[in-house]
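User: Fold this; tokens only.

Assistant: Input:
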Amino acid sequence: MPGDVMSHVIINFAESFYCYYYTDKKQGKMQLQETLKFLKKIGAEDFRKTLKLQYDKRILRENRSEK
């Protein structure tokens, strides 16, 4: 994956976490999921796995603790 694309993906992922925590949980979660889908679509599985670990750690764990 070209470095420029990777940089944009990382920035988008970080902005999505910000949105999730500080403005709109539903929108932020949707953006995070869309980013993960995009990475799968372009075949960046290793990079996707790394970001998915962060998603699982922060979003899924938080949702489980709310129940």
